[in-house]
Structure formats: structure tokens, C-alpha cells
Amino acid sequence: MTASGTRSILPPLSPEEARHSAAVAALIHAELAAAAGWLSFERFMELALYAPGLGYYSAGSFKIGAGGDFVTAPEVSDLFGRCLARQCAEVLAVTGGEILELGAGSGRMAATLLTELAAHGVLPQRYAILEVSADLAARQRSRLAQLPPGLRERVVWLERLPERPLQGLILANEVADALPCRRFTCRARGVRELGVAPGEGADPLAFHEQYAAADASLAQACRELRAALPAPLPEGYTSEVCLRVAPWIAALSECLGRGVLLLCDYGLPRSHYYHPQRGSGTLRCHFKQRAHDDPCVNVGVQDITAWVDFTRVAHAGLAADLTVSGFATQAAFLLALGLEGLVAEADDTVQRARLAGEARRLIMPEEMGEAFKVMALTRGCDVALAGFALQDLRHLL
Ligand SMILES: C[S@@+](CC[C@H](N)C(=O)[O-])C[C@H]1O[C@@H](n2cnc3c(N)ncnc32)[C@H](O)[C@@H]1O
After folding, report:
1. What is the residue-wise DSSP string for 104-170?
2. How would residue 292 be classed by pLDDT, with cut points 50, 70 and 90?
3. Which structural domain, as residue segments, surrounds residue 43?
4. What is the pTM of this model?
5. Which of 97, 101, 152, 256 could join 167 in a cystine, given CB atoms 3.0 to 4.6 angstroms apart?
């Protein structure tokens, strides 16, 4: 679809959004000009999402929740955080220590977790949040300020990962999919890298996708990928590869002394992710609850994500001396942690019906149940994690 074709199916930008998007586009054009007119998709995504003060996550649009661009599991229902709290309680009972949440969004999951953990009598010593978005961090502060003092006093915001290894849990819901990724297309004579160049029409702030030779790191990653896949990728096959996963997991491993790194995200094991039939990749953009696949429009005011290759995450974990202790669908994880019981014990039929609807969104295959996966990477934590008692998909990795 062309840029104007994509725009025609999206709600129009408000004047403020148009001004903001133009500022982000101008910044990226300046970098394009300094880079001979071509940027890798990874760099384009990094600037569009995280350019200081301007990128989608760095600046102040509403983003998450019903009034924003997309809805995440903690925003669908507190049932998600209540189930997750049971998994956290089980780990904290053994390790003690703290919880570090990466990218805490609106703060809703943190509020639910702390409230539930207090009810379980297993509170973390502190609840640290590492958030790259100043705007979202402000939302988190105002939401978590409403907790009772004994809970809110445990919450701290970090500027960077802790230097001293922690005991407990590191949680990341829908963070890995926001790591900037590279894009490639298979050609008969090797892979080509898909990046971004200035648009060719009248709009001086437009972009279009353009190919360049794959550099050594991307070519090597694609060679390894193709060697590991059961079927060859056909000519024209386009997808993504996130080379930031390994350094990210390595950095998280450095700060996990004993405990569990729990990642929840939409994603697949490698052989399913790079299936020949998934020939145009998994890149998605989100704008006002509409999903589309054109990252060159609404730059800086829409989210850009790609699904997570969980085999890459598992390999990165093993390389960082972590153990892959669990891999399951979100549905299996939540059901194993007692989702149905939480619905059944609702106070009255109206509330039960509401919770049943929310639970369906979290677990039905056509909603979030199958596409979202949960992976546990652990160190020194010999607990049979309850969330993975119903399903073990590690053989697919
Ligand atoms: C899709 S939102 C998910 C928010 C929240 N976890 C939820 O489920 O509602 C992605 C979040 O990750 C944050 N983020 C992105 N990259 C990050 C990084 N490298 N470290 C920490 N947070 C990050 C964003 O600012 C945002 O809060």
C-alpha cells in the first residue's frame, strides 16, 4: 500500500500530532542527509520511537490503553497482574529480594502486582521501574502514588539497570517487541537489507523503504538463520531480525544474581516465525487502535513493533549463563496460575460476567492467548514455576 493509501485507512492526525510528526520526520531527514540518504530500519525505528524528547516513547502522546494507540494485557484486565502476582509470590518466597519491571507502561501492572503480593504476604523489598519514556514514567508516578503508603514507598524509578545483581524477578511485558530491529529480503544471490530513504514525491518530509547491501552483521545473522531453518526461505521473502536481543538479554543477565527474568510478548519459536508462508514479516504499526504495516507514515506518533523470535531470546539467555526454565502461551500461563478461579470467585454475577469477558480476551487463541508467549530465564532458582505447569513449549525453540 502507498503512504497515501495507508493514511486513507487511518484516522487523520490532529494539528498537534501533525506538528509533532513533522518535527520527528525533520530530525530523521537530517540524519538521512548526513548518512548519504539511507538509514537501516533499526536506526529509523530507534529515532522514530526513542529520539530524545521527540520519539514516540520519549514524547507525550497517550499511547497505551483504550484512549491510546494499543491495549496491552495489563490494560485489558487486572486478571493478568493478579495471575502474574502468584508467579512472583512463588519466586519471592524462595529468593526474597525485589522486582524490577522494565517499561511499566501506565503503571497498572505494578499497582496490581503490589496490591496482590501484599494480599499474599510476600511483598518485594522494593519495586524498581526502569522506563525510557519520561511521559510514561510521569503517568506511573501519579498512578502508583494512589497506593497505600506501605506499597508506594517500595517503588523506585531507575535511570539505568542496577549495578549490583538483584535477587527476585525482572519483568518485561511487551518490551522486547519494541527493540529496534533490522529488516531483510531474500534474493537469489543473498540477502538485501531493507532500510529507509527520503521520499521521492513532493512532500519533503516523506520517507520510502529502500534496499541496500546487507552489512556483515546482518548477512551473518541471516546465514545463521537460514542454516537453522527446516525449509529454505523463498526469493522475495521479507522479515525482521532483532540483533539487539542478545546484548539486551546479556545486560539483564548481568543484573540478575538469583531469580527469574520473565518476558511476555507476542512472538514465536524461530521455525514458526520464519515460516515460508509468513513472507512479509511481522512488523506492525499501531495508531489509535488501528494496526497497519507502513512505518513510513505518522512517524513519531505511532508505535512500531515486531514479533519476538523466542529462539533468539533463548539462545541469548543460554549464552548469558541463564537457564530457559519455561516457555508457554499466555493462555496456558494464566490458566496454570488460576485465571478461571479468579473469575469464579467474583463477588456477584455482573462482576463475574465482566471478568469472564476480560479473561476471554487474555486467553482466546484469536485474541491474545496464542500469539503472546511467556518465557522464564532463570539463575540459581530451583523452583518448578507454577505458570508453566500446564504447557511446556521449550521443545519448539
Ligand atoms: C508496548 S509498551 C508496554 C508497556 C507495559 N509493559 C504494558 O504491558 O502495558 C512498551 C514499554 O516499554 C518501554 N521501553 C521500551 N524500550 C525499553 C527499554 N529498552 N528499557 C525499558 N523500557 C523500555 C516503553 O517506554 C513502554 O513503557
Report:
1. -TTSHHHHHHHHHHHHHT---S-EEEE-S-HHHHHHHHHHHTTS-HHHHTTEEEESS--SSPEEEEE
2. very high
3. 1-397
4. 0.95
5. 97
